[in-house]
Amino acid sequence: MNMDGKLHIFFFPFMAHGHTIPTIDVAKLFASRGCRATIITTSANAPDIIKSIERSRQSGLDIGVLLIKFPSKEVGLPEGCENTNSLITKEMMHKFAFATTMLEQPFEQLLMEHRPACLVSDVFFPWTTQTAAKFGIPRIGFQGISFFALCASKSLFWEEPHKKLSSDSEPFAIPNLPDKIELTRQNLPDHLKEESDQIRAYAKQAEESELASFGMIVNSYYELEPAYADHYRNFFGMKAWHIGPTFLCNKDNEDKSLRGQEPSIDEYECLKWLDSKKADSVVYVCFGSVSNFDDAQLTEIAMGLEASGKEFIWVVKREKHEEGREEEWLSEGYEKTMEGKGLIIRGWAPQMLIIQHEAVGGFVSHCGWNSTLEGICAGLPMVTWPVSAEQFYNEKLITQLLGIGFGVGNQRWSMFMGDCVKREAIATAVSRIMEGEEAEEMRSRAKALGALASEAVKEGGSSYADLSALIEELELHSTGSGSNKKD
Ligand code: UDP
Q1: 245 lines ligand 1 (CB under 6 A)
Q2: Does the N-terminal or the C-terminal CB of the chain have fewer CB atoms within 10 Å?
Q3: Is Transferase included in the keywords of this UniProt record (predicted)?
Q4: What pLDDT is attached to residue 44?
C-alpha cells in the first residue's frame, strides 16, 4: 500500500500490440477501482501508450508510464526496433526475444526504486516471477489469451501427443480437455515442434514461472467458456481471475480509436463510409498486428472479396506507394472499380470503432484473442483464418464450441503467413458468414454472447466480481494479512 493508501501496481506488457493493448485496459480497470497503475515500457513504445491513457488521466485515474531502455543495438536490431510489429524475419524475432531477457537488470532497478505492491507482467517475461520475489512482491502473470487456449497449450506442452504421429496431417485429440478437440501437427506452434533445447527450455521456464506466480489474470469472461474456466483452475490447479473483456472499459469513440497506434485513416471518414451502408452488410477483414501476407496472398484476398459480392473494409499491413506507382498485389484499377464498395486501409485501422458499427456484419479474422473477443462482443460471425501463436486453438473455440464461425482452410502454423488460401475459398467463406440461414444463426449466437460479455463487466457481473476479489486479496497481501500461497 502507498502512503496515500492506494494499492500501487506495476504493469509490464510484452512489446507487441496484441499484448500491450489489453494490458493498458487492465491497468485502466485497476485504476478505475482506486489503484495506482504504472505501465512499464520502452521509449519507442511510450508515445502510443501515453496517448492511449491520456484521456483516462484527464478523467482523474491514477495511471502513468515509466521507461526502461530496450537494448536493440546491443542485440543487432536497428535502433528504435522495440516492437514485434517491426520484425519481419525469424532471425529478428530471435534477437528481439533475446533482448527482452536483458531487461531484467534495469527492471529490477525500477522495482527497487518504486516498491509497488504487486506486479502484473507478461508471461513472455518468465524471469519476472523471481525478480518480484526478491522484493516480496506478488507477481501475477498476464498472457491475454482464452481459458480454452490456456488449457490446450498446457495439455499439449506436458503430454506431447503430436510426438506420436506418423504425419503432419494426421488428426489427434488434445488430451484431457472437456471436449474432443482435434488438431494436426501442422496446426501447432514451432516451440512445441522444434527439438531445440533452447526453445524448449524457454517454454519450460515460462510454464514453471506461471505455476510459481501468485496467479493469472485472464482476459475472458466466465459465461463464454465456463467448462474451460473451471478446467484451468480445477484440472491444472491454476489460480486465475477472469476480468474481461477488458476493452469494454473504453466507452467513447476516441478511446476506442486510440489503441495500439495512430490509425492510418481518419476515424470520422471511416465512420462516414460505414454510415452510408445497410446494417450487417459490410465484412471487415483484418489479420492483427503481426501477420504479414505476401503479394500472392494479398491478390487472392482482393479477388476473393470482389467475387464474394460483399461490401468490405480490408486492412493491409502495407504502406501506400507514392502516387502513380503500382502496387504489385493489386490489379490495375481495382480500387476504382470497387469505389464505394470496398475500402482498403493500409497500415492501422481503428478496429474497435469499425467492428462495433452496425453496418459491419461479419469479420474475417486471424483469430488473435483480442480480435476474437472484440468480434464476439460486436456480435459478429467470423471467417477464421488462423496464422500463428495460439490462433489455431481459438479457431476451434469459435467454430466448434461457440458455433459462430467458419474456417477458410489454412492449416499451416507459420510466424507470418501459412498456406496461400485461394480466392474461391475466400469468396465462399465470406458469403457463408454474411448471408443465409446459417449466417443468421451464427450472428444471433454471437450477439447473445456479446450481451453476456456486457453483463459480465457490469457491477454484479462475473468479471467485475473477480476483479473485486483480486484487489481485495492484493490489499490483504500488502498489509501483511494475506499469504503468497495458492489456495
Ligand atoms: N488492431 C487495431 N488495428 C489494426 C490491427 C489490429 O486496432 O489495424 C488491434 C485489434 O483491435 C486488437 C489488437 O490490435 O485489439 C490485435 O490483437 P490480436 O490479439 O487480435 O492479434 P495480434 O496482433 O496479437 O496477432
Answers
A1: no
A2: C
A3: yes
A4: 97
Q: Is residue 134 part of a domain?
A: yes
Same domain for 289 and 181, yes or no, is no
Q: Could you tell me if 318 and 359 lie in one domain?
A: yes
Residue range 208-227, pLDDT digits in tens = 999 999 999 999 999 999 99
* Residue 256 lies inside a defined structural domain of this protein: no
Grid cell locating 332: 490495375
Question: Given the CA of residue 291, which atom of ligand 1 is nearest to it?
Answer: 25
Contact yes or no for 233/208 (Cβ under 8 A): no
Is there a single domain that holds both residue 105 and residue 217? yes
Confidence of residue 286 (pLDDT cuts 50, 70, 90): very high
Within this chain, do residues 426 and 460 fall inside the same structural domain, yes or no?
no
Q: What was the pLDDT predicted at 322?
A: 67
Q: Say yes or no: 445 and 320 in one domain.
A: yes
Give the number of residues written for the chain: 487
Q: What is the DSSP letter of 445?
A: H
Ordered alpha helix ranges (H), 102-189: 104-114, 128-134, 147-159
Residue 35, classed as helix, strand or coil, is: coil
From the list 32, 134, 132, the residue with the least C-alpha distance to 471 is 32
Residue 348 Cβ < 6 Å to ligand 1? yes
Res 486: pLDDT? 41
Residue 295: which CATH number? 3.40.50.2000
> What is the pLDDT averaged over residues 120-136?
96
Asked if residue 151 is part of any domain, the answer here is: yes
Residue 324, pLDDT above cutoff 70: no
Mean pLDDT in residue range 143-167 = 95
122 catalytic residue (yes or no): yes
**CA 366 to chain CA centroid, nearest Å:** 10
Residue 268 shares a structural domain with residue 334: yes
Substitution candidate for ligand 1 out of 371, 374, 384, 395 with most atoms within 8 A of CB = 371
* Total structural domains within the chain: 2
Contacts from 125-134 at CB under 8 Å and sequence distance 24+?
125/12, 125/14, 125/100, 126/202, 126/205, 126/206, 126/208, 126/209, 126/210, 127/101, 127/205, 127/209, 128/12, 128/209, 129/209, 129/212, 129/213, 130/209, 131/104, 131/107, 134/108
Range of the domain at 171: 8-249+455-481
**Global pTM?**
0.96
12 and 150 in a single domain? The answer is yes
Distance CA 65, CA 82 (A): 16
Which residues have C-beta within 8 Å of that of residue 29, sequence separation ≥ 6? 243, 246, 249, 467
Task: Please indicate, yes or no, whether residues 199 and 233 belong to a single structural domain of this protein.
Answer: yes
Q: Is 383's C-beta closer than 6 angstroms to any atom of ligand 1?
A: no
